[in-house]
UniProtKB/TrEMBL annotation:
InterPro entries: ZIP (IPR003689). Pfam families: Zip. Belongs to the ZIP transporter (TC 2.A.5) family. One of its GO terms (cellular component) is plasma membrane. Keywords: Cell membrane, Membrane, Transmembrane, Transmembrane helix, Zinc. It is found in: Cell membrane. Signal peptide: none annotated. This is Zinc transporter, ZIP family. It is a multi-pass membrane protein. The keyword Membrane applies. GO terms for molecular function: zinc ion transmembrane transporter activity.
Length: 233
């Protein structure tokens, strides 16, 4: 299975996460915060152990430090100048989430090129697990604007197509610029850690469900340990 197909499946996970909106009258806040915490644990493992640690183990400590800092700063700038999840217009909301998916696709492509199929699949699992609760949240926002559950789900599926496109870009770029691989991996790891700390954890801790979200985080981290042990490079 190549990186493009894996990233396509990963991108579609957002739409899969949106499907329950069709059957539910109202999303339970405890469930939403718990699964968001789970996704945060998954992403933390992927960023630290699948992206940053390999750079350090290969001796690229300086590139890792610089990549982490620039990756985090990049996400800060992107967040500052792009519309947030509460944007009222359909177009601006879709655009914001497509742009958010671009670095995720790049992460998958970079993982395949830099450390092989096993790392690429592991990262795809991590990002896919994050996209499921994200899709649920995004579709819930779209539902309030579109007043149609079917349209909200379809829009959420369409948003995910940014990932396979950017994965292809990541593969092509790293194929010709091998010396940038350690930096690129650390850049992606820093971006992930920023999103987890600045968005996912605060969102899961702001409605009184902190403990449940925390145990969701721990379970997500353990989930990735399991997959790391069975997926070989």
């Amino acid at each position: 299975m190549n990186a493009f197909i894996v990233s396509l499946i990963t991108g579609l996970c957002g739409g899969i996460g949106a499907i329950p909106i069709i059957f539910l009258k109202r999303i339970n806040e405890i469930f939403e915060d718990t699964i968001l915490g789970f996704a945060a644990g998954v992403m933390t493992f992927a960023g630290a152990y699948s992206l940053i640690l390999p750079c350090i183990e290969d001796g690229y400590v300086f590139q890792a430090i610089i990549g982490i800092l620039i990756g985090a700063f990049f996400m800060y700038i992107l967040e500052k100048y792009m519309p947030d999840d509460k944007a009222s217009g359909n177009f601006t909301l879709v655009l914001a989430n497509i742009i958010h998916n671009i670095p995720e696709g790049f992460v998958i492509g970079a993982g395949y090129e830099a450390h092989g199929k096993g790392t690429g699949i592991l990262l795809a699992i991590a990002i896919g697990m994050q996209n499921i609760p994200e899709g649920l949240i995004v579709s819930n926002i779209l539902l309030k604007t579109l007043n149609s559950k079917i349209k909200a789900v379809l829009y959420t599926f369409l948003i995910g197509f940014g990932e396979p496109i950017s994965a292809g870009i990541g593969i092509l770029a790293l194929e010709y610029i091998k010396y940038l691989i350690p930096f690129s991996m650390a850049f992606a790891g820093g971006s992930i850690l920023y999103v987890v700390s600045n968005e996912m954890i605060p969102k899961s801790h702001c409605r009184g469900n902190e403990k449940k979200a925390t145990f969701g985080f721990i379970l997500g981290f353990i989930f990735m340990i399991f997959f790391k042990s069975i997926i070989k490079e």
